Amino acid sequence: MPTTFTKEWDTPAYKGKTSFSTGLFIDGKFVDGSKGTTIDVINPTNGQLITKISEGLEEDVNLAVAAAQKAFDTTWGLNASGPKRGELLWKLAQLMETHKDELAAIEALDNGKTFDWALGVDVTFSINVVKYFAGWSDKISGQTLETDEKKLIYTRHEPIGVVGQIIPWNFPLLMLAWKIGPALATGNTIVLKPSEFTPLTAIRMCELIQEAGFPPGSVNIVTGYGPTVGAAISSHLKIEKVAFTGSTLVGRKIMEAAAKSNLKTVTLELGGKSPNIIFNDADLDQAVNWTAHGIFWNHGQACCAGTRIFVQSGIYDEFLEKLTAKAKAIRVGDPFGADIDQGPQVSQIQYDRILGYIDSGKADGAKVHLGGEPVGSEGYFIAPTIFTETKPDMRIVKEEIFGPVGVVIKFEDDDDIIKQANDTVYGLAAAVFTQNINRAIETAHKLQAGTVWVNCINQLHANVPFGGYKQSGIGRELGEYALLNYTNVKAVHINLGHTL
């Protein structure tokens, strides 16, 4: 049988405890992996072991798919009405609300984000997403199409069946909510793989899913590694759709596996290198505040982070001075400490990757204006970092760093900035700061990105679609648009009198 993880906190930010199974969640039960092997979950604040969890393998994915298919055929799918699906999702959201502090503490422990951010943003937004899709559950409808008086033709939006979902480590609970919300609302059953770096909130959510009353097999969580569990989900012949959030490199592998197996539907929310454009007429203080948020939110571990900061020459020096002061004021430390703004990066791998990019920027001749080094002697802490004097072909300008690192670039005229901003393989998000509404709209329309923020950045809502252009992905998360990823459209033709 799987072990139980128990943890008690007595910190300035949170006092409380948690206890839950560390097993795979298949067919409504916690079980060991097929080989009995485990994965170490590491605390990013000190590099020490938090707990061990069961390691899933291909055999476990097969068991989860069988359980999901059985549930789809018998207790979920077309066998559970829209109102019933909505009722269960709403109950799940209420249980998340009841346990929100505990979920935030698990998230902060596992991921390294501060408890206050985990509670105020990740958990709160996750609850809102589940509530939002609960409201959609009884509103999945088609159309009646007129041809002539002797035909009745209508469309149905039917659930696809068993869907595979693979989520990243940067927003573990939130990405789970983004994935399961539309899938369950539309009647699909799920086999989900959380990141092996941050699996704990997903495992804890299994107990809440169970308590809410979802049928066994409707949601299955298989913890494991990408090359085993992720690959098995992507290539499984009985999974008809896969949704993935993560790197563009892995997204390509998932598309390839889907094409080589059963041509399953694929939605991908991938990387970004988002431009943030600040014009001379911007509200300078607000532009600085939002820009700092755009770079350093979630320790820079956000696919939509505004890390290419283009500042018009008329305000460049003053903007850089104010941004520097803002970044210097960021307090880096224990996620459960008092008044902490930024915790550690998620893992040793990510820590080393970010420092490698910083070294690359230095070697290429960019100027380290601020930061550029680790913080402390243990854990994966990196100082907020700003580069200046960059060139367009530098890796720190072109590639996604996924850490608290931004580059500030001076520009002159409006036409040139559009070309610079769009000079990237990515197209997830962008931001524009100006008090001129015409300039704001014209610039927003010319930017090649799935989301454009004007006089703000990194603002997401449950009812607003999110996804990318170019190599930032396929399909959309959130909003009504997300539902389109989880249904098949069927046209029904009824002959009312035509004869041959």
From TrEMBL:
GO MF annotation, one: aldehyde dehydrogenase [NAD(P)+] activity
Active site: 269
Pfam families, sorted: Aldedh
Highest taxon listed in the record's lineage: Eukaryota
GO term, biological process aspect, one: acetate biosynthetic process
Keywords carried by this UniProt record: Oxidoreductase
Gene3D superfamilies (alphabetical): Aldehyde Dehydrogenase, Chain A, domain 1, Aldehyde Dehydrogenase, Chain A, domain 2
Residue ranges of domain Aldehyde dehydrogenase in the record: 30-492
Name of the protein in its database record: Aldehyde dehydrogenase domain-containing protein
Gene source species: Laccaria amethystina LaAM-08-1
